[in-house]
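Q: Could you fold this chain for me?
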Amino acid sequence: MNTQPTHRPVALCALIFAFLITTAAADKPTNVVLILSDDQAWTDYGFMGHPDIKTPHLDQLARESAVFRRGYVPTALCRPSLVTLLTGHYASTHGVTGNDPSPKYAPRDSEVYNQRRAKLISYLDRFETVPEALGKLGYLSHQSGKLWEGSYQNCGFTHGMTRGFPEKGGRHGDDGLKIGREGMQPINEFLDLVKEEDKPFFIWYAPFLPHTPHNPPQRLMDKYSSPDRPITVAKYYAMCDWFDETCGQLLGMIDDKGMRDNTLVVYVTDNGWIQDPKKNGYAPRSKQTPYEGGIRTPIMYRLPGKIKPTERTELVSSIDIVPTILAAAGASIPRDLPGLNLMPNLTSGDPIERDTIYGESFAHDIADVDDPEASLLFRWAIQGNYKLLLTYDGEVNRYQSTHPRTEKRPQLFDLIADPTEQTNIAAEHPDIVKRLANKINAWYPVKKRKVLTTFQ
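A: Sure. Below is the predicted structure, expressed as structure tokens.
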């Protein structure tokens, strides 16, 4: 008779316990952190090859993520870009096409002007925002940084910092703009709260960085100052570094609280920026514009154990971020969202079956809050190497120098051979111009604005 003790019951119990723990972890909703840079060029990161700007924390995030180097935002202006990230819709659909009602038609802070501001904010009510959709599933959500559409509660967040219009000082973030520049404590406290309540969470981290004012800590100014570098450029470089530091603090909190493995991190920039070396401001063909300096951004997705860290070569857009977040959280995706749910591609590694992405540019000052076409300046499409840019005759008001529109004919660029868009090859490729112009028109028709679709 075998008198040796058996460990089978103990081993079986251990296996059952491990299975239950694994199943519980698998069933736990995925947390989401959306990191938004504000006014940063697509080139201005270590992982994107910048020779001088140091971004070690975002470089580490890139090593752990699916990285799309050819990422884009449909509109190169912060407010419409951010509303796209709240709703998943293009500016021409959500209706917030610029930053402010045009002061040409009503003085700022006049009754009419403020009525128009309120009307723009009310457009958000036509859509279910990301925090509202996730809230139905029990998520808590926190807003910090930039936010134009009233208070954080108005946008569907359960927690946040921005009081918003019509509160005093409410425009594009008020108290929320302190995040990053004055520490990260509000987010840390929120993370402690969700951990204590055992709730899934969504974090909107949109700091006023590296956005002007370019006033970095002196220790970072010392790092980038040199006799052969303009002071304006040194300040901007230091701001990019400062933003990276805050991203490291945020991701460190996630790690320290044991939340890393069940948290989807998404990274994107609201719009681009090319620093003017001669003054405090942006150079031509950057912020607000439909050129690469305005619309291109790296886009990253990290979810340990589910999204394989890799370099992706496909074209993607920030229009994809909302359906992808909703899918990761197990929320239903509205059928009318134009973007793609990338989760199946991110988890399987399969290529994205889409060959064309689209965008549109409107004036900073909204000529008519009821008519997006009134301020339409450009529409564009990118297919493979080629980008077609069409120019429209919408009203600009301020920022005339940003949008000279001296070339009204189609502009076609080979973005691989000419990433800075120096050579318009529309005259040499009328077939490509016609094909992409037809695609832009099929995207949605423009009824009032004038446009040239052939190069003559």
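A (continued): The CA atoms of residues 284 and 402 lie 6 Å apart.
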